Amino acid sequence: MTKHRKKQSNTEGSIRIIGGTLRGRKISFPNIQGLRPTGDRIRETLFNWLQPDIGDSRCLDLFSGSGALGFESASRGAAEVVMVESDSHAYMQLKQQAELLKTSVCKLHHQTAQQFISSAQGHFDIVYIDPPFSAQLWASIADSLVLQSLLHAGAKIYLEQPRQMAIDTLPPSWFLLKEKQAGDVIYCLFEYQPGAKS
């Protein structure tokens, strides 16, 4: 009697880098709860926004997940990309991908965003904030970045949020530059202007 094995579910997903020196290279990521790789259309719009700023920039990807934003930044000429991920499985996959892509500018940290912020040094030119939507960490992360003085004047901050969820008040020094919607996701680009008051 022939036994039929059940097909195993695919434990990984993949996306491709869409621009720069690594264009077309595949990024694999684990299928874990809360991990939402930023899609091609949104990434294309975002990096069009960031085109004047990305070259030789210091970037911070606080909820790196699949690595879509961090590796895309490296591909497009960022001088340093700090990628922070708290999930062990996702972190190990990021580490493997960085080795496969030979992206020496990527620096990986296995810790929470708040843990990283509390001990980080220096300033960043571009910051990506795309946490699991259920965690609702946008406002607390934004405040911490300002309090820890991790942003250069004029730094760009990218933020993704669900359309149906209002974000608590962001720092008055964050000025909205761009905002678009794709499906149920709203994505925004802010500029940090220190000393500004509401």
Can you offer a commentary on this structure?
- The chain is an alpha/beta fold.
- The protein has 5 helices and 9 strands; from the N terminus they run E-E-H-E-H-E-H-E-H-E-H-E-E-E.
- It starts with 11 loop residues before the first strand and ends in a 6-residue tail after the last strand.
Topology:
Elements: E1 12-16, E2 26-30, H1 40-54, E3 58-61, H2 68-75, E4 80-84, H3 88-101, E5 106-109, H4 113-119, E6 124-129, H5 138-147, E7 151-162, E8 174-182, E9 185-192
Parallel strand pairs: 3-4, 3-6, 4-5, 6-7
Antiparallel strand pairs: 1-2, 7-9, 8-9
Radius of gyration: 17 Å
As for the number of domains, it is 1
As residue ranges, the low-confidence spans are 1-10
The name of the CATH topology is Rossmann fold
Sum up the overall morphology in one term.
globular
> Count of helical segments?
5
End-to-end Cα distance, whole Å, is 75 Å
**Largest sheet data:** 7 strands, mixed
Instruction: Give the CATH architecture.
Output: 3-Layer(aba) Sandwich
For the record, what CATH class applies? Alpha Beta
Mean pLDDT: 88
| Percent of residues in beta strands | 25-35%
Succession of helices and strands: EEHEHEHEHEHEEE
Total beta strands: 9
CATH homologous superfamily classification: Vaccinia Virus protein VP39
Across the major sheet, the strand order is 5-4-3-6-7-9-8
- The helix content, as a percent range, equals 25-40%
Structural class: alpha/beta
Enzyme class: transferase
InterPro entries: DNA_methylase_N6_adenine_CS, RNA_MeTrfase_RsmD, SAM-dependent_MTases_sf
Keywords: Methyltransferase, rRNA processing, S-adenosyl-L-methionine, Transferase
Protein name: Ribosomal RNA small subunit methyltransferase D
